[in-house]
Amino acid sequence: MSPTSKIEADARRITARHHEVNPGEIAVGVIIGRTSEFFDFFVYAIASVIVFPKLVFPYLDPLTGTLYSFGIFALAFIARPFGTTIFTAVDRAYGRSAKLTIALFLLGTSTVAIAFLPGHEQIGSASAWLLALFRIGQGLALGGTWDGLASLLALNAPGNHRGWYAMIPQLGAPLGLIVASALFAFFVGNLSAEDFFSWGWRYPFFVAFAINVVALFARLRIVVTPEYTRLFESRELQPTSVTETLRAEGRTVVLGAFAPLASFALFHMVTVFPLSWIFLFTREGPARFLVIETIGAIFGLAAIVISGFVADRVGRWPLLGGSAIAIAAFSGFAPQLLDGGFVGESVFMVLGFILLGLSFGQSSGAVASNFSRTYRYTGAALTSDLAWLFGAGFAPIVALFLSSHFGLISSGAYLLSGAACTLLALRLSQRLDRTAA
Question: Would you call 436 exposed, middle or buried from its count of C-beta atoms within 10 A (0-12, 13-18, 19+)?
Answer without folding.
Answer: exposed
